[in-house]
Amino acid sequence: MRILLVLCMLTLSARAALEWETRSVTLQVHPTQVHADAVYRFSNTGKEPVTISKTKVGCGCLSVKLSKRTFQPGEGGELTVRFDLRNRSGKQKKSTVVSMSNGKTATLSTAVDIPKAYKIAPKMMRWVVGSTNETKTAKLENPNKQPIKILSASSSHKHLPVELKTIREGFEYEAVVTKKPSASNARSVVRIKTEPPPGLKESKTIKLYVHAQ
Predict the structure, then answer these.
(1) Under a CB-based contact definition with an 8 Å cutoff, are residues 176 and 155 in contact?
(2) Distance of alpha carbon 22 from alpha carbon 112, whole angstroms
(3) What is the Cα gyration radius of the chain?
(4) Residues 6+ apart with CB under 8 A from 36
(5) Residue 30, exposed/middle/buried by CB under 10 A (0-12, 13-18, 19+)?
(6) Is the pLDDT of residue 13 over 50?
(7) Do strands 205-212 and 124-127 pair parallel, antiparallel, or not at all (unpaired)?
(8) Tens-digit pLDDT profile for residues 133-182
(9) Please, which residues have CB within 8 angstroms of residue 57's CB and are 6 or more apart in sequence?
(10) Which residues contact 75 (CB under 8 A, 6 or more apart)?
(11) In this structure, are strands 172-178 and 162-168 parallel, antiparallel, or unpaired?
């Protein structure tokens, strides 16, 4: 009886299968790009319908999109893995596990090397008690060959306003924060908006943190 059950399971497995064109995608992205899509194409090469029952991403920066879940014999489809690039830089490699109704799984790998749009120093400005400096300056430098404009800078605290100065458009800027006398134990997040990549509407925001005691 056990042998018959095993044979039945093997027969069903042979009749239902998804074949993937590739299980590994390396994305090329712009420094200010906020997300990128990796597309994995497949086809049902078996004799029975196959349902994608579950997908499990290996990082909160990934999300999965499927137009449908069940695929008939001979039918092809696509699974899209969206990579959220915000607050990330450098080499990244994440996995997505796809579980199917025939008991099989497929592990998809998504890799990307995210370039920094700007280097910023210092990343945090701090006024200590007794400090007499009214302003502090953070320098922003674009390490890439292509220019990237900075569009604006805004502070989350009205008593710690920020002014954006252009040194070399697309490559060098300064963010000058002023500590007003009324800024006591005040904190601010300075958001610096960058130019979107060509053809896109969204772009990354660079963050600078300020604390005045």
Answers:
(1) no
(2) 16
(3) 25
(4) 27, 29, 82, 83, 85, 112
(5) buried
(6) no
(7) parallel
(8) 799 999 999 999 999 999 999 999 999 999 999 999 999 999 999 999 99
(9) 63, 64, 81, 94, 95, 96
(10) 43, 44
(11) antiparallel
CATH of domain 119-212: 2.60.40.3450
- Measuring CA to CA, which residue among 43, 44, 40 is closest to residue 55? 40
The torsion angles phi and psi of 9, rounded to 5 degrees, stand at -65, -40
Distance CA 144, CA 141 (A): 9
Residue ranges of the chain that CATH labels 2.60.40.10: 19-114
Residue 15 confidence (pLDDT): 55
Cis peptide before 122 (omega within 30 of 0): yes
Query: Could you tell me which CATH class the domain 19-114 is placed in?
Result: mainly beta
Measure the CA–CA gap between 73 and 16, rounded to whole angstroms.
8
